[in-house]
Amino acid sequence: MEPFVLRSSAVTLSVPTGADVERIAAVCVDPEIAAWTVVPSPYSVEDATGFVSGFVPAGWEQERDFTWAVRAPGSVDGAVLGMVGVSCGGEPGEQRRGELGYWTAPDARGRGLTTAAARLVVDWALDPEGLGLTRLQWQAFTGNWASRRVAWKLGFRFEGTLRRYGAQRGTLRDSWMASLLPDDPRQPAEPWPDEAPTAAA
User: Fold this and answer.
1) Which residues of 64-100 are buried (b: 16+ CB within 10 A; e: fewer)?
2) What are phi and psi of 190, to 5 degrees?
3) Average pLDDT over residues 55-80
4) What domains appear along the chain, each with residue ranges and CATH number?
5) Residue 106 and residue 21: Cα distance in Å, rounded?
């Protein structure tokens, strides 16, 4: 599949390129990204180069991993504000499931950009004219309330904690799991957890 652009009034999503390498490398040394994602740590320019020249184009070509850089509205080559993507398994013609993932640059947090970007990807992934997924899931390491807040806003339904499920640099960590089906409303389907820190709200 050829990469394409997704747009809304809040964000533009376009494929990261070589021009984004230095920005991605600078963002991915952020301690929060290292703590909650599976990017290499410490993160280097070489890691960013491999990401944009290897993982991203291969994912689109194989129709397995679809990755976009989050940018300001109207700009297909502006500064990277975050990254969002969906990975999927199965073959066309089968019922397929996928997983949503994202991270946000420190200077772009708290502005609703990740929710807006993820909403575009969710809508495309579940649309029969898009990927046509039967199930889209979200997974995060236990305690990542900022990520959970985004999934909650999009209507993902929390399914529980999976013990030592998520792999991060050779270690298995407890993970949260939630899912969204094509006919589910794209808005909160359950109360925000009482135990969530105030800062995550």
Assistant:
1) ebbbbbbbeeeeeeeebbbbbbbebeeeeeeebbbbb
2) -155, 160
3) 97
4) 6-200 (3.40.630.30)
5) 17
> Using alpha carbons only, how large is the chain's radius of gyration in Å?
16
Degrees (nearest 5) of the Cα angle 44, 50, 54?
A: 165
Q: Three-class SS of residue 26?
A: helix
The token pair that represents 44 in the structure block = 């280097």
CA distance 104 to 9: 18
Backbone torsions φ then ψ of 177, nearest 5 degrees: -135, 140
* Side chain identity, residue 158: F
- For residues 102 and 69, what is the distance between their CA atoms, to the nearest angstrom? 10
Q: What is the DSSP string of 76-107?
A: SSS---EEEEEEE-S-TTS--EEEEEEEE-GG
Distance, CA of 36 to CA of 76 (rounded, Å): 27
Phi-psi label, residue 68: left if phi above 0, alpha if psi -120 to 50, beta otherwise: beta
Lowest mean pLDDT among 1-15, 94-108, 187-201: 187-201
Tokens found for residue 197: 């820190």
Is 200 a residue whose pLDDT tops 70? no
Tens of pLDDT, residue by residue over 114-156, are: 999 999 999 999 999 999 999 999 999 999 999 999 999 999 9
